[in-house]
Design brief:
The complex is a heterodimer of chains A (402) and B (414). Chain A contains 13 helices and twelve strands. With 402 residues, chain A is α/β, with parallel strands linked by helices. Chain A is globular, with a radius of gyration of 21 Å. Chain A starts with a strand and ends with a strand. Classes of the chains: A alpha/beta (402), B alpha/beta (414).
Chain lengths: 402, 414
């Protein structure tokens, strides 16, 4: 069903760049963030995160009130959405709003303790929360629209408003597989003719106290832990015929996908990739590189390498394996589409940034004798795989159209 | 199909009591509501809930998950889900929102953050009384992941967080996944467990709740001129969706059919529905079109109708936009009059009640509909349930923020 769907625009904001172009340039220069950057946000050495800077809301005609409601999630969606529409030239002749679909994965929107704690502290009587005191005084310290700001879909809905989109839509949350689900839903929307254009996006959790605490509890800070990366990525999808008719540049075609869910990491990854290959009537030999987008640097990366070693036996093991979080952190809900955007760029430019190559340091040669030092033949197809902490895995295959 | 609601522990009990016009709205008993302007809600009896499936899950078992497990178990059992051999072709799509931190937790967290986004994490970890798993219960995908683990669903796994539209969107996305060949079977649905102090506080601050009613049972009054807000509620609904040929091949009983699904974004204002119901109309039109039908072929509408002043008017206008003059004669029912608003579960629960109504030739009543609002000129089924054969129905769900979903449903026996 996904055949005949073209990626005609791509954008990203990551800790390596304020746009896809900047991010790619940094990657090409082997820029990495192996050490916590200056923007690291915690007083605790155990909690690291890689923040991004969002452009001014006013640049996009977003009021201060809306910006507060949208939070960083919504603002990133608008910023990257605009980049995608501009890059695909769709901004010059936008289809009617109802014919544009929008699917996105959003990281958890956490209530900041400080959003409420002032009001709660003002409402304590003899050390206990007093409801009457709260409603007579304490509640004034809470922003009147605070309850809306805590809903995951509010930033998304405001982004729809500012991007001029009113077609079919969905918000998935918050696993690392979720934005590849968004890509597949968007691809179906255009393939089935329900939408003329579809955006698919992902936004990470913001590096808030709560998200960093969650990451820390998940193993961040340990030898084999992971580092959360803030950011957003998005693609514009159209039917190939529509894209060609308007003379758009096609970065790549979405040709296959597969999903799986299970506690056995390698098995779930194998299942998702196998389902994707079957979907496109492809074999392992048809895949020139694999991008892992939602990996942890340690244990989970091992699971992925073991899975790929099983799937690509013999000489096919020489195919490059790339681990996106090595350079830009684990973008969680944005991870899948961030991987897809970088894979599309790699296909388009026929280049694999060395900064993304997985090391395989903790995997025995028998398990994962991957060729990690570049590639010798043209890149035709890349599989992008992303696995969430809940065991959900999504795989999408894209191919060069030239 | 399975559900657990303030009206009953399963589909049969909920439908029977709803058909009798009973209300599940009561004074809140699960926590102290002293001083709160709204002290009523729809609450599910704890005795109806599962404890949590496995030891591994136990610490992560939020109330939402327990509600969902109860509904999911009923649906899985009725559908004989365990008999489906290819588990990689069985997926889960759920509308759910993670647990919100309680007031006590927020106070506890406050002691370990400096107000500028910095934590003393080792200090938090050492704190007695704070369960760090709370942070995971906040994750919406935990419910979908654990439900999949419980029922051995190794296929696609989706968590939708589109507020009040989430349950219907989950069923809609599950339907599309099957239609597009991504799965043979999907467990779709939604759950909500927001009846707690923080949930009530949030909606109170938004002035969204019904605060004035002579009795809890009369507070939810969709399309009635005296309505003044919605009643918060909790529950879960689950359906097992299956490709028709797959269901027939394994001898499964077909309880209904998703004929079409439409969704849209208002792209208007974040605090209000579009006053003309433009987005809602678009969703209904898409669902009818996808079903290959015309508006004239729709027999009944199960409205979103939360009992807010503006929301009900916008929906009435959307119905008029889609159905023209027929909007005054097509029967409209509002299940939230009896159940309250179960947020992410509402779309799933109302989808199921719509299907059961079709098979019983019964349109559920909209209780408390006594003084029609002239701004909502619809044939609202007020008073008692209406006996009427019907074969095609719409079930509407519209979310805060302007996300709209509509399921076009059939009996499945045509």
């Amino acid at each position: 069903m996904t055949r005949g769907v073209a990626i005609t625009g791509a954008g990203a904001v990551t800790s390596l760049g304020r746009s896809l172009e900047e991010t790619w340039r940094s990657l090409a220069a082997c820029d990495t963030i192996a050490a916590p950057p200056g923007g690291s946000s915690s007083s605790s050495e155990l909690a690291r995160g890689h923040r991004v800077t969002v452009r001014s809301a006013a640049e996009f005609g977003i009021t201060a009130r809306e910006a507060w409601l949208m939070g960083k999630h919504g603002l990133l969606l608008v910023q990257v959405g605009k980049e995608v529409l501009r890059g695909s030239s769709l901004d010059r002749a936008m289809p009617p709003a109802a014919e544009i679909a929008f699917y996105a994965a959003l990281g958890i929107v956490d209530p900041a303790p400080e959003d409420l704690s002032r009001a709660v502290l003002d409402s304590l009587r003899d050390g206990r929360f007093d409801v009457e005191l709260f409603f007579s005084k304490g509640y004034r310290a809470i922003h009147p629209l605070w309850p809306l700001s805590a809903l995951n879909n509010v930033g998304f809905s405001l982004a729809c408003q500012h991007l001029g989109i009113s077609g079919e839509n969905g918000v998935f949350s918050p696993g690392a597989d979720a934005s590849l689900l968004a890509v597949v839903e968007a691809a179906w929307a255009v393939a089935a003719g329900r939408a003329k254009v579809a955006l698919a996006a992902g936004v990470s959790e913001t590096c808030s106290a709560s998200s960093l605490a969650r990451a820390w509890l998940c193993g961040d800070g340990s030898e084999t832990g992971w580092v959360p990366g803030e950011g957003c990525a998005a693609v514009a999808l159209e039917r190939v015929a529509d894209a060609e008719a308007r003379g758009a540049t096609i970065l790549a075609n979405v040709v296959a996908w597969g999903f799986a869910c299970g506690e056995d990491g390698p098995a779930a990854i194998r299942t998702a990739i196998t389902a994707a290959l079957r979907d496109a009537e492809l074999g392992p030999r048809d895949i020139d590189a694999t991008f892992f987008a939602g990996t942890e640097v340690g244990q989970q990366e091992n699971a992925e390498m073991v899975a790929v070693a099983d799937l690509f036996p013999g000489s096919d093991r020489a195919r490059p394996l790339l681990a996106i979080p090595r350079s830009i952190g684990n973008m969680l809900a944005a991870a899948g589409v961030a991987g897809l955007v970088l894979a599309a760029q790699a296909l388009h430019l026929q280049h694999l940034p060395a900064a993304l190559l997985a090391s395989g340091r903790a995997v025995s040669p028998q398990q994962a004798p991957m060729g990690l030092l570049g590639h010798e033949r043209p890149l035709r197809r890349i599989a992008v795989v992303s696995r969430g902490h809940g065991g959900q895995v999504a795989a999408v295959v894209i191919e060069d159209t030239r | 199909m399975g559900m657990v609601t303030p009206l009953g522990r399963d589909v049969e009990e909920t439908f029977t009591r709803a058909a009798a016009g009973e209300s599940g709205v009561r004074a809140i008993t699960s926590f102290d509501t002293s001083g709160l302007p709204c002290r009523i809600a729809g609450q599910v009896d704890d005795a109806w809930l599962e404890d949590g499936a496995t030891d591994r899950m136990h610490g992560l078992a939020s109330r939402g998950l327990r509600l969902m497990l109860s509904a999911g178990r009923q649906a899985a059992t009725a559908a004989r889900l365990h008999e489906v051999a290819s588990r990689q072709r069985v997926g889960v799509a759920l509308g759910s929102h993670g647990d919100y931190p309680s007031l006590d937790q927020i106070l506890l967290l406050h002691r370990h953050t400096d107000g500028k986004g910095r934590w003393n994490l080792p200090g938090l970890a050492r704190t007695a009384g704070y369960d760090s798993r709370q942070l995971f219960r906040r994750k919406p995908d935990v419910t979908a992941g654990l439900l999949a683990a419980t029922f051995g669903c190794h296929g696609p796994n989706l968590s939708l967080v589109s507020a009040c539209a989430a349950g219907a969107q989950a069923i809609g996305e599950a339907y599309r996944l099957i239609l597009d060949g991504g799965a043979d079977v999907m467990v779709g649905g939604g759950c909500e467990a927001t009846v707690n102090f923080m949930g009530l506080l949030g909606f109170t601050l938004l002035h969204a709740l019904a605060e004035e009613a002579p009795a809890p049972e009369t507070a939810s009054r969709p399309f009635d001129r005296r309505r003044n807000g919605f009643v918060l509620s909790e529950g879960a609904g689950a359906v097992v969706l299956e490709a028709e040929d797959h269901a027939l091949a394994r001898g499964a009983t077909v309880l209904g059919e998703v004929l079409g699904y439409g969704d849209s974004a208002d792209a208007y204002r974040i605090t209000d529905a579009h006053p003309l119901g433009t987005g809602a109309a678009l969703a209904m039109q898409s669902a009818i079109r996808e079903a290959g039908l015309s508006p004239d072929e729709v027999d009944v509408i199960n409205a979103h109708a939360t009992s807010t002043v503006q929301g009900d008017i916008a929906e009435a206008r959307a119905i008029a936009e889609v159905f023209g003059d027929r909007s005054r004669t097509i029967p409209v029912t509002a299940n939230k009059s009896m159940l309250g608003h179960t947020i992410a579960a509402a779309g799933a629960i109302e989808c199921i009640l719509t299907l059961v109504g079709m098979h019983n030739a019964l349109i559920l009543p909209t209780i408390n509909y006594r003084t029609p609002d002239p701004r909502c000129p619809l044939d609202v089924v007020g008073g008692a349930a209406r006996v009427k054969e019907h074969r095609v129905a719409l079930s509407n769900s519209f979310g805060f923020g302007g996300q709209n979903a509509c399921l076009c449903l059939g009996r499945g026996d045509d």
